[in-house]
Amino acid sequence: MKNIMTIDLEEWFHFNTSDVEISKDVYSKVRVVDATKVILDLFEQYKVKATFFCLEYVASKYPDLIKLISEKGHEIASHGINHKLVYEQTPEEFEQEIKKSVDILEQITGKKVLGFRAPSWSITKKSLWALQVLQDLGLKYDASVFPIKTFLFGIPDAPRKPYYPEYNGKKLEILEIPCQLWKFLAKDYLFREDFILEFYLIFLLNGEFVIQIIKVDKFYFTFIRKR
Question: Which pLDDT score, from 0 to 100, does residue 211 have?
């Protein structure tokens, strides 16, 4: 079975829940650079190519990291600016955010940005207008729809395979590539390859990195960090 490998390139504190408070001093703790280089080495070792959905926040602070990812043959796509949920923005705000994100990524890599993934998969039924905005800006695909319902995201009746979505009664030209689900006992569950990758990294690196798991409501967030 063939799969598409993707990475959301963001700092460890870029998550969307009000239940976890973060003190101001933690924003100075940089982890994305070292962690990404470890992943790049693994991808090179196993001849894996991936799409990196990059926050403008990361790209502006670490342009050399974005350039390194691109030079190693991976695709650079947009993940927005600072991980703000799409449905908490107006169409005008979202358009300006994507323009800024895409412009910076293209300036760094010299390559056309073709795709987008919304922070926390926040293109839902109440923000389908975002797909029209992405198409109007020239993007070719989106990977923001999760065909399951959670407290934060999801369109449970969305197709499970790539499709061309409709908006305002019109089929769009932008391709939607929905996130993967795992079916168990006739029920759909979120399938996150990063759980597997993170545990594998811990084992491979002989304890140089540790895994941190934070529970929020019924969900678990995993982070990888150096000792």
Answer: 47
What sign results for the dihedral spanned by CA atoms 84, 88, 92, 95? positive
Single-letter amino acid code for the residue at 69: I
Give the span between the Cα atoms of 49 and 73, in whole angstroms. 7
Q: How much is the average pLDDT of 34-54?
A: 91
* CA 151 from centre of chain: 18
Ranges 84-88, 95-99, 218-222: which has the least confidence: 218-222
Taking residue 192's Cβ as centre, other Cβ atoms within 10 Å add up to: 14
Q: List the beta bridge partners of residue 141.
A: 115, 175
Residue 73 CB partners (closer than 8 Å, separation 6+) = 49
Alpha-carbon distance of 168 to 160, in angstroms, equals: 21
* pLDDT computed for residue 163 by the predictor: 95
d(CA 38, CA 36): 5
Q: Residue 56 in contact with residue 82, Cβ under 8 Å?
A: yes
| Chain segment 150-187, per-residue pLDDT in tens | 766 778 889 988 999 999 999 999 999 988 765 544 44
Q: At 43, phi and psi to the nearest 5?
A: -60, -40
What is the model's pTM?
0.77
151: DSSP letter:
S
